[in-house]
Design a protein that fits this description.
about 575 residues, alpha/beta, four-stranded antiparallel sheet, four-stranded parallel sheet, 13 strands, binds arginine
Length: about 575
Amino acid sequence: MLYKILEQRLLQTVQAVLPGVEAEAVRVRPCPDPKFGDYQTNALMALAKARKMNPRQLAAEVASKLDLAQWCEPVEVAGAGFLNFRLKPSVLAQSLREAAQGGHLFFQKASEPRCVIIDFSSPNVAKPMHVGHIRSTVLGDSLARILRLLGHHVVTDNHMGDWGTQFGKLLVGWKSHLDPVKLQTDPIAEMERLYKLVNAECEREPQILEKARQELVKLQAGDEENLRLWREMIALSQKQFDRVYARLGVRFDHCFGESFYNPMLKKVVDELIQSGVARESDGAMVVCFPDIPELKDHPAMVRKSDGGFNYTTTDLATLLFRWEGGTWGVRPNDIVYVTDGRQQLHFQQLFTVFRRWHPEANAKLAHVWFGSVLGEDGTPFKTRSGETVRLEDLLDEAEERAWKVVSEKNSELNEAQKREIARVVGLGAIKYADLAQNRQSDYVFSWDKMLALQGNTAPYLLYAYTRIRSIFRKEGENLAGGIGECILTAPEESALLRHLLNFGLALDATVEDYRPNFLCGYLYELAGHFARFYENCPVLKAEGSTRATRLALCDVTSRALKQGLEVLGIETTEQM
Ligand code: ARG
């Protein structure tokens, strides 16, 4: 990774001039305008400012002491104190050659691997997975994949909602209104119907509410019959989850679920009381935050006045379990939660309470939140009849619509091929539409946009990939090991290669702030650079080292695209 070499050398030189400067203060980044060079740093301006020094003078001094002759043209001082670096053509060519030979793919594994726990997807039992779950599932899965690619130890956990007050109502519904035929054909719809029915009843009739409460108490006390029904509801839901995850290619290391922590809840609250973190208020146990402005008016309840525990209690037990290394036996460096933005307050409270309870726990705790999926009219995405859209229906429709696109383009493919391509393109389109957004904004769900062959979409990237692959089909040539000398001649070749050099930077930036849209943006630009290169630089008609260089560029571009899509959770297809 050339920019890392530059960064290291720069840091050494800066430290020789200004002892004690931290590595974080010295960053090398791509030049926004290639006119000025390949990389630049603005570090010296900030360092000079903090020390009341002249920034240009400092930059000049560092530049004069910096020995980068092996990699760069002479370093230039620019503007108010930037340093600009331009890589030597021979260095660029060498890097391409090494990549084409399989030595690297423009990224490197983390020098200090971290153990990262990611809690994502986490749907609720007895309810259909809906469009909202796509965001947590797809974001969490892609973060896990990218972190793993970078060499981190990732533990994924699906914190399913398989415990809680809803089971009281579900049990009442199951015992008095169950339709066994419907349960056979569509168990999730039937359970949802039962829940809604009893929920409405509870609002009208207090004695039904009381009945639901009693069923819940019986379940919590270990009543055989209720436990059996509860297990059946979970098993039926699990089938649905498994189907969705299999289609999406998502897997979890663990699915402990909320119920797993049930036996630990009493101890959690006892400890919180003993350590003075929680106190009584109107019969309930709460934690107050008078010193934190955002939380001042939002105490966290950890035990209800009826003695019952809640979502927060369960999450505290979960957090401790994870911090202690769960069943995998490694203390995490990071614990990451991927949920919608409405849970921000909950996680702020959770992290604060946990820090007071276990001040020694130094893991980084992150709530990676996201906005809502909206319909074209700007209100929450619904079916035409106003119901929430089921994820499974959405995936079906994506494949169906992609099949139309594929069929119109390709009459020569057989039906099975078209179906397979449509599956990859349709699911890819849905995932990519989600990942390419700034996760914190709401986005409008649009079939036309996500399936478009132009723009920042999965079909565009997948098509770019197949185009490159078709060059190799025509060529029938396997490049590995056989690549000759690389010489870059056309500006489009260099522009493409310079962009490839920043693949690792894009991956690092993506995990640093948990934002897969950075990687999407990078891949989209990569496809753009490739298109310009391919338009201006004949590959198969070229000769000698020009041809070898161009084939190498095609090869490494296709591999970077495939790798990038893979860590977004998107499969590729060889034809489209
Ligand atoms: N089941 C919750 C929901 O559907 C999400 C759980 C997120 N994870 C957690 N540890 N609280 O909103």
